[in-house]
Amino acid sequence: MTSQSHPEDSPAPNGPPTSDSDTTAGPNSGATADTTPSATAHAASASATHNERTFFGHPWGLANLSGVEMWERFSFYGLQALLVYYLYYSVTEGGLGMNEATAVSIVGAYGGLVYLTSVAGAWVADRILSAERTLFYSAVLVMLGHISLAILPGFIGVIFGLVFIAVGSGALKTTSQVVLGDLYDRDDRRRDGGFSIYYMGVNIGALVGPLITNALWGWKGFHWGFGAAAVMMAIGLVQYTVMRKQTIKDAGHEIANPLPRKKYLPVFLGAAAAIAAFVLLFTTGVLHVQQLSNITALIAVIVAAILWVQMYRSDLTTAVERSRLIGFIPMFVASVAFWSLFQQQFTVIALYSDQRLDRNVFGVELPPGVVQSINPLFIILFAAVFGALWTKLGDKQPSYVTKFAMALGVIGVAMLLFIPFAGGGANSTPFWVMVLILFLFTMGELMLSPVGNSMTTLLAPQAFPTRMFALWLLSISLGTALSGSLAGFYHPNVASEERTYFIVMFAVTVGLGALMLLARKWILKKFVDVH
After folding, report:
1. Going from the N-terminus, what domains does the chain have, and what CATH number goes with each?
2. According to the model, what pLDDT value does residue 23 have?
3. Does this model's pTM top 0.70?
């Protein structure tokens, strides 16, 4: 197993899934064979040979991609650690003065949008630009987004900044893995090791980003933190551009299923019309900013339903594969439930760390966003341990269903640990309690995230591997958006309501985990030889 920092950065151990078939589906399928997202495997490989210089025995393109992704994750999680505070802190404190419910809704919608755009970005790579060019332009968008947040005042900076970053990060996270996989031959034994090095770079960026941006926030203000994210992303982009021709070469340059040029204009006009419609609905007051996370969640549900129905109804899908698609539904629901709690690190836990947590550690008052570095630190420490554990257990390891149930139980217990401190005042919760809570979050993540990626590749219909992986990503998108919606029900100023919130979170996830165990035999029967 390769290590990973966060759900979007944790593909199956052998890299991203291969491209779906380009064959046209039957007349009753309602879809063509997949051109949806994401990790397209290309026939031509840019594999390093034994005669050329290597990076620790790997192609030099690995160093280039690891570097740009490390800086992108630095900027992304550095921003995540500040965002909710910037939105709801008062203007005199350097923030925008929004109410907490609106702030957490924006954060949830932003996170959910990242996963939605990863699906769209992979489609653009497969049909229009190629993975490598999509990666490059995505990195430019991310940098522009952070610059917007750093220099544009007020809510205008938030709008341009978050949209640019969400679109850029979503597309970059899928295409970078495609390009990385294309650096190796399909049977190259160095592939797993290369992905491990790549994800170590991801983890380092996720660990260091919040530390640096929070330090700058405390020293000079929010915009200095955003500026640091912009500078680091610029460094990553310059590094990638300088090394691009020499290290990437032809990797990721093939367009898997080119879109006919005559269809470019309809696609562009359709996207423009959708954007214009959303802008109009918000400017006319039909939709409100506080509803953003709910809207994002609704879009994720609709897109996920369309993908599932297309695969299920396709003539290219066999009876066994349809059975597996049915078995995937409770796994999808469990994943949504898990991520809806896990991603509250950036909503409820962010608020809690600011208002309740005793952040005085060894005589030093830590900024509240520093807690966002705890999870990636535990990932670095324990990802390899879990990988070795599953390998050692072999056929004796728990089934996919059991692992998902365990993940739900663990994160449910983590929420229960908040209850003894409900209704407390400032500095009422010891810092070690938050460390323990986020340790349990990490244990749950390691039981579900890489396991879910692996499971999805095995359950995917043979004609639709990338469409199935897109469906899995949408479970994360939906869960992340719901983390913002759920946070709107969190009221820390009323002890009874705060206690009820954590009890409900605990009861729902543990209860769902118990239902998964009860339905285990039925689900595994639907999986047909996938355990």
Report:
1. 56-256 (1.20.1250.20), 291-530 (1.20.1250.20)
2. 38
3. yes
